[in-house]
Design a protein that fits this description.
The structure is a homodimer. Chain A has about 220 residues and is mostly helical. Chain A contains nine helices and no strands. Chain A is elongated and about 65 Å long. Chain A binds a DNA duplex (30 and 30 nucleotides) through helix 2 and helix 3.
DNA sequence: CACCAAGTAGAATGATGATTCACATGAGGG
DNA sequence: CCCTCATGTGAATCATCATTCTACTTGGTG
C-alpha cells in the first residue's frame, strides 16, 4: 500500500518534470506573458485541467522552473568552488561553471537574464522574492570571493560588490553574444580563459607603448572578424 | 493660418511628450504587460480615447519611448566621442556617458535592460526590429573602438566584439547595483574611474605577491562594506 | 447667437486567456 | 462483471484589458 503510494508520488514527479521541460522551452521562446497555459499543456501533451493538477497557476510553473534551475546551478558552483584554493582559482571556477552551465541550458539563460531586471515585473511579491534571494546569494558569493582575495593580497583593492557585479555582467553579456550568433556553432566554454584573463588583466596593452606612438603602427594586429 | 497650424502641431508634440513621460514611469515600475492603457491615461491625465489620438497602440507608445531615449543616448555618445582621440579616451567617454545618462534616466534604465534580452518577448516583429538595430549599433560602435585600439597597439589583442560586450555587461551590472541600493544615495558618475581602471587593468594585484604569501598578510585591506 | 471643427471623454465592444468544474475514463477490488 | 475512487479532460466561466465609437465640450467664426 505504501509502496503503491510511493510509486504514485514518483510518477507524479516525472510528469511535473516533463511539464517543466516543455514550459521552459516555451517561456524562453516567447516570454512569460506571451506563453499561454493552453500552449504549455499542448506542448507537454496534457489537457489544461491536468496541468492544474500539478501546478496551482501559471506563475507557479514559472517559479518552480526558475527555482529548480537556480538551485541546480548553485549546487554546481558550490561543488566546483570546494576544490578551489586561491582567489584566481575560485573566480575561474565561477566563470567556467557559469559558461558551461548556460551552454547546456541555453533556454534557461533567456529566462535568467530577463528576470534579472526584476521579478516584480512578471510575478507577484512573495514568490518572486524567493527567487530574488537566490539571485542575490549567487552574487554575494562572488562578492565574498573578491573580498577575501583582496584581504589576502591576491586582488587589487576594488569595491568587492562592484567587481562581482561587473563580472556577472561580463559573463551574461558574453553568453548572450554567443547565443546570438552561434546558433549551432562552436562551444562557449573555451571563452572562459579569455574572460578570466580579461577580468584579471583588462584590455590594456602592457607591451610598453601604452597610448603613445611607437615604431611601426602595428597594423593588422586585430583578429580578422 | 499656417502660424496656427504650427502652434497646434507643437502643442500636440508637448502632449505626446507628456504622455511619454508618464508612460515611462509606469513601464519602468511594472513592465510592459502589467501596465494598462487606463493607467497610462490616468497618469498623464487624459482619457483613454485621447491617448489613442496620439498613439496608435500601446506598443507604439512603448516603442516611441525607447526609440526616443535610445536616439538621445546615441547622440550624446557620438558627441562625446568626437572629442576623444586615444582608445582610452574613447572608452572613457563611453563609460562616463553611459553612467551619466542612466543616472539621469533611471526609469529608462529598467526598460533598457529588460529589453536587452530580446524585443520579441514584448513586441511584434517589425517595430522591435528597429529598436534592436539601434541596440546593436551601439554595441558595434564600441566593438569598432576596441578593434581600432588593437590595431593601434593601444589595446591588447582581444576579440573586439567580446570585449565590447563585456564592457556593456559590466556597465549595466554596475548601474543596476547602484539602482538597487542607492535609491536616494550618492552619485553614479564617479564610478566611471573605477570601471575604466577595471576594464583596462583588471582585478589582479600587480603589487608583486600574486597569489603567493608575503610578509604581512595585509589583513583589513578590504573596503569595510 | 447658431454652427462647425477639433479635441476630449469614457462607456461599450471584443478578444484573449487563466482558472474552474461537471463529466469521462480506467484501474483496482469485491 | 460491476462499483468506486483517483485522474484526466476540455468546454464553460470570469476577468482583464486593448481598442473603438458615439456623444459631449470648447473655442472660434459668420
Amino acid at each position: 500500500m505504501n509502496q503503491r503510494t510511493l510509486r504514485k508520488t514518483r510518477e507524479l514527479e516525472w510528469r511535473r518534470q516533463d511539464l517543466l521541460v516543455s514550459a521552459e522551452r516555451l517561456f524562453s521562446e516567447k516570454g512569460f506573458f506571451k506563453t499561454s497555459m493552453v500552449e504549455i499543456a499542448e506542448a507537454a501533451e496534457f489537457a489544461i485541467g491536468t496541468v492544474y493538477q500539478f501546478f496551482k497557476s501559471k506563475e507557479e510553473i514559472y517559479i518552480s522552473l526558475i527555482e529548480a534551475k537556480m538551485e541546480e546551478f548553485a549546487a554546481l558552483i558550490d561543488e566546483r568552488l570546494a576544490a578551489a584554493a586561491s582567489s584566481r582559482e575560485k573566480l575561474e571556477a565561477v566563470i567556467r561553471t557559469k559558461l558551461e552551465y548556460f551552454e547546456r541550458n541555453r533556454n534557461f539563460f533567456r529566462i535568467y537574464v530577463s528576470e534579472w531586471s526584476g521579478f516584480e515585473w512578471t510575478m507577484k511579491s512573495a514568490f518572486g522574492e524567493r527567487c530574488w534571494k537566490r539571485y542575490q546569494t549567487q552574487l554575494d558569493l562572488v562578492t565574498d570571493i573578491v573580498r577575501l582575495g583582496i584581504r589576502r593580497g591576491e586582488l587589487r583593492m576594488v569595491e568587492p560588490a562592484e567587481a562581482a557585479y561587473a563580472l556577472h555582467g561580463m559573463l551574461n553579456s558574453t553568453i548572450y553574444l554567443w547565443m546570438l550568433q552561434a546558433k549551432p556553432s562552436g562551444s562557449l566554454a573555451p571563452k572562459a580563459d579569455t574572460l578570466l584573463h580579461l577580468f584579471f588583466h583588462g584590455v590594456d596593452n602592457h607591451a610598453g607603448n601604452g597610448g603613445a606612438k611607437r615604431g611601426r603602427p602595428n597594423r593588422r594586429a586585430a583578429p580578422s572578424t
